[in-house]
């Protein structure tokens, strides 16, 4: 019997190429887990299984993948089950972004990353649940109910890519795609004991991703190991003419392309062995507001890296403390703009009113959940006349200063290391105060503001057997070097 929870993408691919396993066997095992556990955990909004899906049925995809492998044309992802976050377009399928306002919207084309996965014969398992329009840190904000953490169903899986992380942790897929606007891949990776990676801004095209905050959003992989995450990453990167912010990622350098204003200067390729890397630790940034067990685990992980040969250097980054308030000015402003198209006329559900304005008001009131409405209102406020300069423009100035701070510090160190999240996975309803919930992203948002690659890797378990995660952030386009760290930690005895 296949133990999906322990099987990696790398091992499964090797077994299929040797004829020791078929994709049909692999997908059947994932579908069995989904059938048995999805009702309880609420991970998938839609599993691609059954005659209604025709050629998109997961088993039909698996049969085609087995033929590709049999003919010797398979890649490392051929026949591998991948779960897809519900804000990434898959042609012919619904894409609701976890919202009622898009509950019947059907994608008319494939996202760039979906094309890439289909090209290599990966098996798309279905659409995973998420916080509405990726707004949340717990996947409690989905219009279709919360996702439960497979490790402890009384706790959240993190968010907003909680469904994608939970799918891998529950053995319903071997890898998954999520989107990360302020930590939405890395935070659920930490809560579910996985590797979660936010690539350099532009390394992965956003074409076909339902926009939340365009200068912050980035699609990335979730997997059990860095090797598996890198296999997915290698597949989905690439220059896309449909995305003006897309870059041509080659190795650890790229040919420049248009990006958001103030984006960091590309890093020079690392050429030293990983043991020679210098890791900066901004200890002043997390002296308060962090769980004692999380801090203890972080310090132990620092010692493991020292034993592995890494050089640890305490650094001071005084602007990092402004990352969260800056994020909650820029992000809602872009949310307000991006979601203005969902008005019951152009896109989304339509509730008939007495006139156009009344219809518009009713459609959005019913279609959007409370957290989405909160951020739209906040965004409209900071963009309004009289407040644009006071809030939005000032936030962008500080954002550029944070980018410069990172650029300067990377002249001294190769990576910055912090805990991924201040706590382990919390229980449902524990963070009812929105401000307390927002603090879950305190260590993750700065990488999005600066457009930098960042990875969360597992680093042990708490006394309650809940996973810990630590985060490493590097210069632009140091993505490949980031994957090496998790392997070193995993192999450290």
UniProtKB/TrEMBL annotation:
GO terms for biological process: translation. It catalyses: L-glutamyl-tRNA(Gln) + L-glutamine + ATP + H2O = L-glutaminyl-tRNA(Gln) + L-glutamate + ADP + phosphate + H(+). Residues 25-481 form the Amidase domain. InterPro entries: Amidase (IPR000120), Amidase_CS (IPR020556), Amidase_dom (IPR023631), AS_sf (IPR036928), GatA (IPR004412). Keywords: ATP-binding, Ligase, Nucleotide-binding, Protein biosynthesis. Signal peptide: none annotated. GO terms for molecular function: ATP binding; glutaminyl-tRNA synthase (glutamine-hydrolyzing) activity. Gene3D superfamilies: Amidase signature (AS) domain. Its EC number is 6.3.5.7. The active site is at 85 (charge relay system), 160 (charge relay system), 184 (acyl-ester intermediate). One of its GO terms (cellular component) is glutamyl-tRNA(Gln) amidotransferase complex. Allows the formation of correctly charged Gln-tRNA(Gln) through the transamidation of misacylated Glu-tRNA(Gln) in organisms which lack glutaminyl-tRNA synthetase. The reaction takes place in the presence of glutamine and ATP through an activated gamma-phospho-Glu-tRNA(Gln). Heterotrimer of A, B and C subunits. Belongs to the amidase family. GatA subfamily. This is Glutamyl-tRNA(Gln) amidotransferase subunit A. It comes from Candidatus Nomurabacteria bacterium RIFCSPHIGHO2_02_FULL_35_13. The gene is gatA.
């Amino acid at each position: 019997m296949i133990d999906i929870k322990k099987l990696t993408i790398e091992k499964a691919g090797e077994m299929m190429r040797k004829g020791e396993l078929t994709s049909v066997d692999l997908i059947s095992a994932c579908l069995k887990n989904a059938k048995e556990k999805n009702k309880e955990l609420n991970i998938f909004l839609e599993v691609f299984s059954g005659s209604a899906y025709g050629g998109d049925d997961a088993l039909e995809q698996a049969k085609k993948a087995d033929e590709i492998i049999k003919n010797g044309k398979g890649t490392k992802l051929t026949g591998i089950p991948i779960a897809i976050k519900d804000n990434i377009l898959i042609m012919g399928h619904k894409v609701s972004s976890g919202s009622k306002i898009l509950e019947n919207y059907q994608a008319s084309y494939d996202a760039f990353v979906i094309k890439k996965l289909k090209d290599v014969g990966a098996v798309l398992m279905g659409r995973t649940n998420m916080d509405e329009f990726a707004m949340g840190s717990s996947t409690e904000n989905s219009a279709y109910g919360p996702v439960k953490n497979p490790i402890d169903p009384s706790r959240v899986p993190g968010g907003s890519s909680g469904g994608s992380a939970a799918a891998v942790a529950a053995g319903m897929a071997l890898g998954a795609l999520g989107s990360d606007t302020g930590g939405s891949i890395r935070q659920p990776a930490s809560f579910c004991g996985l590797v979660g990676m936010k690539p350099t801004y532009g390394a992965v095209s956003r074409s076909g991703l339902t926009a939340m905050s365009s200068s912050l959003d980035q699609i990335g992989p979730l997997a059990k190991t860095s090797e598996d995450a890198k296999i997915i990453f290698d597949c989905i990167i690439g220059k896309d003419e449909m995305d003006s912010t897309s870059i041509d990622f080659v190795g650890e350098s790229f040919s420049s392309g248009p990006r958001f204003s103030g984006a960091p200067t590309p890093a020079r390729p690392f050429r030293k062995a990983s043991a020679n890397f210098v890791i900066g630790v901004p200890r002043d940034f997390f002296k308060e507001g962090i769980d004692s067990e999380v801090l203890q685990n972080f310090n132990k992980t620092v010692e493991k890296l020292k034993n592995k040969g890494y050089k640890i250097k305490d650094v001071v980054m005084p602007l990092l403390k402004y990352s969260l308030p800056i994020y909650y000015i820029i992000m809602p402003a872009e949310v307000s703009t991006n979601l203005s198209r969902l008005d019951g006329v152009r896109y989304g559900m339509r509730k008939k009113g007495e006139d156009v304005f009344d219809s518009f008001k009713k459609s959005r009131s019913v279609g959007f959940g409370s957290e989405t409405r909160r951020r739209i209102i906040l965004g409209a406020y900071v963009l309004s006349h009289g407040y644009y300069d006071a809030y939005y423009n000032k936030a962008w100035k500080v954002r550029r200063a944070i980018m410069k701070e990172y650029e300067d510090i990377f002249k001294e160190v190769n990576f910055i290391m912090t805990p991924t999240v201040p706590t382990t996975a919390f229980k449902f309803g524990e963070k009812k105060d929105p401000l307390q919930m927002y603090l879950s992203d305190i260590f993750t948002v700065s990488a999005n503001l600066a457009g930098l690659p960042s990875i969360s890797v597992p680093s042990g378990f708490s006394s309650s057997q809940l996973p810990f995660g630590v985060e490493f952030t590097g210069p632009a386009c140091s993505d490949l070097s980031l994957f090496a760290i998790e392997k070193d930690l995993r192999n450290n005895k």
